[in-house]
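Here is a typical sample entry:
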Amino acid sequence: MNNYIITRMFLKNFKSVDEAKVEFEGINLNVLDGPNGFGKTTIYDAIQLLLTGSVRRIETNKIVVGNKGFHDHLFSRHQNLPTVITIEFYDKISKEKLVLQRVLMPPSKLQVSQKKPQDFSHFKLYKLSNFENEENKEALNDSQLNELFGMEDMSDRFNLYHYIEQEESTHLFKKTDKDRMSIISRLFSIEEETNQKLFFERTKNKLSNYKNQIEKELNKLNFEKSEEGNNEFNEFPYKPLIRQEHILNVPWDKENIKPLDEKLKQKYFHELDLVKNLVLNKEDFKKELSNEELDKVIKSEKKLKGIIILGHFYEDIDKIEKQYQKREKYEIILSILKNREFIQKHVDWSFVFENIEIPIKQETVEQRVKLIKSYNDNSNNISSIVSQMIQTRGKLERDLKKYIEFNSEFDNECPLCGDSKESIEVLINQINEKAASLRASLDVNAKAFDNELEDFYSNYIEVIIGNIEEWLEKNTLEKDFITQLVEYRDSIPDMEKAKDWFREQNISIDPYINSEMKFVEDIEKIFQALQKEIKRKKLTVNEYCRDNMEELKRVFTDRLNKEYELLNQINLESIKEKKDYIEYQYFLQTSLIFEKANSLKEKIRKIKDLITLINGLLRVYNDKINAHRAKMISDIEIPFYIYSGKIIQNHQRGIGVFIKEEKVIEATGEVQLKTLNFVPPVQTDHDIVHSFSSGQISSTVIAFTLALNKVYGNSGIKILLIDDPVQTMDEMNMASFVELLRNDFKDRQLILSTHEDDISLYLRYKFLKYGLGVGNINVKQALYSN
């Protein structure tokens, strides 16, 4: 019998750890301490992954990832490096060492679909010759791993008996009866058998439902047979109602109408009645189709308004928009030139000369601009400021004259200082005199700049400004007009097709279309007038067509392919003949009822035989499961009662917890275990989940798992992992829990975690006091000190 414990662990590129070596010095107890979030769970995950091939809390997570791919692997810190877990085990009996390793290739070599968090299949298991040397390692499978430890199923046994997870501290007791039984089945290693039994029960239910359906079908056949009696039909020849090439999608117009029952027959008769009414009302049907088309157009507000706005300009809209953009650009250039800002702001001279005839060469203008800019660049700072002031005063003078031109009530006040002058001429003269005095302070380059600028404007720019203003006056475009065109541009995909439709309806659209390059302000009024014009084209239709239009359209589309020619070929006599032929086909098929009924009876007999066989299998499974469960409950109920009493101590309803079975007797006589209740040692049916605190329930779960480990964890590995067991215990519970571990589990290697230093010291003290081997691992230092 093997009795392995853990002595050393090596992690590389695992979770958030780059590389770490952990020593488990305690044969009896190893305490993992340190603050939360620094690696205690990482050590547990590594042990569980190496021994079982997965991390259960991740593998069973209910978050569904579906077909989603992942670019990084959850358990690898660096995606271009392999992830390695190496653990050295020591057999306390044979004194032999066993070194195992799990390796994940660099995740960058895996596909995104292979990096799902629940997929552990790419971790490969190896046996090493020793802890320090990875050469000549031997690949292992699950069966070989079980053989090494002398266990039947390492994965299930480790998770069931050797590891108490923090997250599942109360999961068992807070489940529904059904879920609790499912977990109990897993704890008792009968999950597979329970699932197989459930599979047989579901199969039995499906067979029973199927048998009921067949019996209903059989009863229906017997009824139809009695209704039909021995009526006989004369034979009717096959004649297609619709041309041969069109019958593929018309089931009632085929020569062999199969299948055909009463429900289908009535459906086909109804469709033929619709065809008949189409023939009788085909003119009104056409009119109503036309009316529906008119209604559709009437409701298309955006399209009708688009025709009104775009009808005259549809072909030229891009050209008009470009013309407007050109106008905007000229307005910007005009503003720059008038404000003498061409030095600070860019002017596209090529654009100016390309579109307007100007009696000046572009090259000459560009050279003068370059010269003026050079004078400006070479003048000193003060001169530049003065030049700017002179230009500003010049602009002010021009703006003032323009203002006076449109405002006859101007009171001759200076726009700079606010003083009132005798006349506008005096004000202008004073502005010019001040500008002249400013010019006297200019340096050579600034004076050259000022003179050149004045000459340039007098002989060139004024001419260009005049030409631009003349062009703008000739090419007037309103912004609101352009905006309205652009707003409705995409409302009409084909304007000619739209106009053709109005011509077909004998509606003159021209009076409604905007032909002036101006914003249409009364668009709503024009739109409503056009709607009324279209409404006047609607035709009077009889009441039947109006009320049944949807059904008539369906049969016209599905059965006649929307072809009026086919409708014209059909007469009332041919419809009657088609109905007679369908009735004849129905008679032929119902004469087979007896044969079909016998076939259904044979199916029912075979299903009953299968159900009888499954009932036998269920009895075997139920007996075996109940026997195994009863034995396991018998094995653990006494240690569980003792351990729960020691850990929880006194509570308001006594000491310890009992396991109580609730059984029901099925109609077949089978005894089924309905649920397991955990009750205090008093006369009550109430489960402890209703009376215990969260801490007491957590302690009860620990006691339950300890009992399982004590009874069933005595071979293979002598390891018991408990994640932060005392976080919900008070001092008395904790003291009794430690004493229980020290006395009853001193033959195991306990690996406990805690985030509290005083609890870590207390645990180690209690074991050391009695000469037991103790180790302490500061996980933060052990995993992240390198």
Notes: Residues 229-233 have pLDDT under 50 and may be disordered.
